[in-house]
Amino acid sequence: MTLHDLHNIIQESVNFDNDHLYNFYLNWRNPLNGECYSSPEDDWSENPSADTVTLAQLNLYEEQYLLYIFDLAERWEFFITVIRHLPDETMTKPRIVEKVGKSPEQYPDCSANYCRTL
């Protein structure tokens, strides 16, 4: 599973349109001072692409935090915690295991008619 796969799972879980760039930061306390992986569509970024690195390659440890920022202008911030590692063969396809609470509105300030015309 790549970071891009994780991005898609997060987008699905919060019902966002998946229409903006994103970054994953390994140093969530100081994102600009650590590893960063960017959207494959980000032609300006010098960071590695999120679709070229797997979660296994990151050597994440249990209770480690990651920061995922979606829509770099609006800055939807998601803090991700590594709960535990599962053997690779136990999961064949990424999936949402549990969802808690109501999803935020991606565009809370626009009227339904305006959003449909974009």
UniProtKB/TrEMBL annotation:
Pfam family, one: PRiA4_ORF3
Top-level taxon of the source organism: Bacteria
SUPFAM superfamilies per the UniProt record, alphabetical: MM3350-like
The Plasmid pRiA4b Orf3-like domain, residue ranges: 1-105
Name of the protein described by the UniProt record: Plasmid pRiA4b Orf3-like domain-containing protein
Organism: Spirosoma validum
